[in-house]
Design a protein that fits this description.
The complex is a heterodimer of chains A (about 325) and B (about 350). Chain A is mainly α and about 325 residues long. Chain A has two domains: about 15-75, no CATH class; about 90-325, MetI-like fold. Helix content of chain A is about 75%, strand content about 0%. Chain A is built from 13 helices and no strands. Chain B folds into two domains: about 1-95 and about 180-270, P-loop containing nucleotide triphosphate hydrolases (Rossmann fold, 3-Layer(aba) Sandwich), CATH 3.40.50; about 110-175, no CATH class. In chain B, the strands form two sheets. In chain B, strands 6-7-8-3-9-10-12-11 form an eight-stranded mixed sheet, sandwiched between helices. Chain B has a four-stranded antiparallel sheet with strand order 2-1-4-5, with helices on one face. In chain B, β4 and β5 (about 80) form a beta hairpin. Chain B is globular and about 70 Å long. The chains are: A mainly alpha (about 325), B alpha/beta (about 350). Chains A and B meet through α9 and α10 of A and α2 and α3 of B. The complex binds adenosine-5'-diphosphate (ADP), iron/sulfur cluster (SF4) and magnesium ion. Adenosine-5'-diphosphate binds next to β2 and α1 of chain B. Adenosine-5'-diphosphate (ADP) binds near residues 48 and 49 of chain B.
């Protein structure tokens, strides 16, 4: 427990630092987002509106940095991340709330599938070294070596453009109204196949290789030999003794990769114009939409920290040796 | 004395073809019912390989290239060749008939499972008819047998000291009341006091339960003390076999003599530490003829050319259980008087 408290404290301090940096960064960057905004609305904004924009965006030079900082924290606790420039006047929190379910559904599910499937293949490949499964490894490694951007574009040109089997862009059939009805869900599933498959193909090799190598290492451990010597069924030795130990490094890797879902989804959603948070970030960056970028970076940071804490907790549960301090 | 395990002409290679390492070459060894047979030899002489091979636990690239391992079961009419068992028969043979306490005492226990779970695994696999309560009860009994309190059942290996871990391994070995227990350097990682305690306890248990022990070590002073008979291994071959007393008082093979000289005796008369000059052979290129000849103080011309075979020593005060592989004992070749030659 003491261990966990210490870790939690560490993550809290990290979160504070990240949030503070998040506050500072846009204020130190060159360029004036309100000017960009004015250019966008092409003179259709009154001077009054412009002044209120400066205040709204927290770029009001009148008030001191400290009071801006305190206001920033106060707003943060209210869940108020400011207004988005790009989707003006929608609040950033609303933009994020609308886009993040898409990312979680696509990347979350894909990451879990990739981990589970990759680890299972890795367990088997490591246990049955030199079997036909080993022939699979160069293929998966090849796909994971292709930059994701290319992989996505190739998939689109082959399966969407040439073959026409899957849509090239978007999250659902244009014109459908998002809701919990079969027509919409099936359309969303259909649209997610291509991005999900490309993510799976490019990420699974890592899990397979990691698990396979750990299985090979662990298989020559004395306790595995003892398990064989005890005459236990092969499956019990493979899972209860070898895989149970070999999976430990992968587990923390998995928890961390869950944290990188939000941050790592940018490329995928850019390639497939998928309506998730990555795509929103992409548009936000193009429009110098600072409140939006800040909001998303905050989410990314929090996700990584929470994932780290999760990794600690899971490790603590799975490896009794780390419980020593408890 | 009736044999319980008979190793016949067993050979083991690591790798195949040109680069193969002949780690064990034509070993013949008999373990009798109820005895402690000691197996000694320098590190790398093939002791562990022999133990792994006879239990079919050889890790790749190890391959058994020939021989038989005959098990004379307690209530079986005819001996069975362990090397010919089907996977299912092998699983049942393991631990039921032969249990092993390994060299890697520290890593023999699964770090993520409790002592109870690892003990009960044995019963789940071999005695599926036992209830959970029976398994727990029996596991607690086993721990008590090796002097560990039953509340350690819920401990993880890292919570136990090295000595306790090895006791747990011994308890585990006793789980199915096997006829044979192989102990491969069971106490190497422990301090001298702990070594002694554990071995003495093991011998008490052996008297109580009546299993046979193949006790492997490179520490010949422990062997002399704890075994009934001793076999000495060099470069994958057995070079001498004798009753423990005879081996200690009057070993015949020059290598045995050197080995006995290189360890201070714990009890009994002190002997000068002579040791063996040179280092163990590289098993990838074993010397021709008698593999010991480059280090042997008594080597002569034949030794370089011909491999001496293990032969019963004749003419010793009625003791026929003694055999040696050395040309010195072939008087026609060496011109020496044979036994006891120096
Ligand atoms: N996995 C392996 N691969 C190749 N050679 C091995 C392997 N394990 C052992 N050997 C060889 O077999 C010889 C005997 O090793 P081992 O049986 O462990 O000796 P001991 O137990 O007497 O110290 C060693 O000299 C080594 O060269
Ligand atoms: S055969 Fe020759 S070399 Fe080998 S031990 Fe005997 S005397 Fe020494
Ligand atoms: Mg060894």
């Amino acid at each position: 427990m003491r261990f966990l408290l210490r870790r939690a404290l560490f993550y809290l301090v990290t979160a504070w630092a990240a949030i503070t940096i998040n506050f500072m960064l846009p204020r130190m960057l060159p360029g004036d987002p309100v000017q960009a905004m004015i250019a966008r609305f092409q003179g259709r904004l009154s001077t009054d509106a412009i002044a209120s924009l400066y205040v709204l965006f927290g770029l009001d030079t009148e008030s001191s940095m400290l009071s801006q900082y305190l206001t920033y924290w106060g707003n943060l606790f209210k869940g108020d991340l400011g207004l988005s420039f790009t989707y003006f006047p929608t609040p950033v929190s609303e933009v994020i709330a609308q886009s993040i379910p898409w990312t979680l559904a696509l990347m979350g599910v894909t990451t879990v599938i990739s981990f589970v499937l990759g680890t299972m293949i890795g367990v088997y490949a490591g246990w049955k070294r030199g079997s036909w499964i080993d022939a699979l490894l160069p293929i998966t490694t090849f796909f994971s070596a292709i930059p994701y951007f290319w992989l996505g574009l190739i998939a689109i040109s082959v399966f969407a453009v040439s073959w026409g089997a899957f849509p090239a862009a978007g999250g659902y059939e244009p014109g459908l109204i998002p809701g919990f009805d079969w027509e919409f869900i099936s359309s969303a599933l259909y649209y997610s196949v291509l991005p999900a498959l490309t993510v799976l193909i490019s990420s699974i090799a890592g899990w397979i290789l990691g698990m396979r190598n750990m299985m090979v290492t662990v298989s020559s451990e004395d306790y595995v030999t003892v398990a064989h010597a005890k005459g236990l069924p092969e499956k019990r030795v493979m899972l209860g003794y070898a895989a149970r130990n070999a999976v430990l490094p992968s587990i923390s890797g998995f928890a961390l990769s869950l944290g990188f879902i939000v941050g790592g989804t940018l490329l995928v959603e850019m390639v497939f114009s998928y309506p998730g948070i990555g795509y929103v970030l992409f548009t936000g960056v193009n429009a110098k939409d600072y409140p939006l970028m800040q909001g998303i970076f905050l989410i990314i940071t929090m996700a990584v920290l929470v994932a780290n804490l999760l990794a600690d907790v899971v490790y603590l549960m799975l490896d009794p040796r780390t419980r020593k301090a408890a | 004395m009736t044999p319980v395990l008979e190793i016949r002409d067993l050979s083991v290679d690591y790798g195949q073809g040109e680069g193969a390492v002949h780690a064990v070459s034509s070993v013949n060894l008999v373990l009798n019912r109820g005895e402690v047979l000691g197996l000694a030899g320098e590190s790398g002489s093939g002791k562990s390989t022999l133990a792994y091979a006879m239990t079919r636990l050889l890790p790749p690239p190890g391959i058994i290239t020939g021989g038989e391992v005959l098990h004379h079961g307690r209530d079986k009419p005819a001996p069975v060749d362990v090397l010919g068992l089907s996977p299912k028969q092998l699983r049942s043979f393991r631990w039921n008939d032969i249990a092993i306490v390994f060299q890697g005492a520290m890593n023999s226990l699964n770090p993520v499972s409790t002592v109870a779970s690892q003990l009960e695994d044995i019963y789940r696999a071999h005695r599926p008819e036992m209830s959970r309560a029976q398994r727990t009860k029996r596991s607690a009994e086993l721990l008590r047998l090796v002097g560990i309190s039953a509340d350690r059942l819920g401990s993880y290996p890292h919570q136990l000291s090295g000595g306790m871990r090895q006791r747990v391994m011994i308890a585990m070995a006793l789980a199915l009341d096997p006829e044979i227990i192989i102990m491969d350097e069971p106490t190497t990682a422990l301090d001298v006091v702990m070594q002694r305690q554990i071995l003495e306890q093991m011998m008490r248990l052996r008297e109580e339960l009546g299993f046979s022990v193949l006790f492997i070590t490179h520490d010949i002073s422990l062997l002399v003390e704890f075994s009934d008979r001793i076999a000495i291994m060099y470069a994958g071959r057995i070079v001498e076999q004798a009753a423990s007393e005879d081996m200690y008082r009057a070993s015949s093979h020059p290598y045995s003599k050197g080995l006995l000289g290189s360890f201070p005796a714990l009890h009994g008369p002190r002997r000068p530490l002579t040791g063996i000059p040179g280092s163990p052979p590289d098993m990838r290129s074993v010397p021709s003829g008698c593999p010991f000849h480059p280090r042997c103080p008594s080597a002569f011309d034949v030794c370089e050319r011909e491999i001496p075979v293990l032969e019963k020593l004749s003419g010793t005060n009625g003791d026929s259980s003694r055999s040696v592989a050395c040309w010195l004992n072939t008087p026609s070749l060496s011109g020496h008087p044979g036994v006891g030659a120096t």
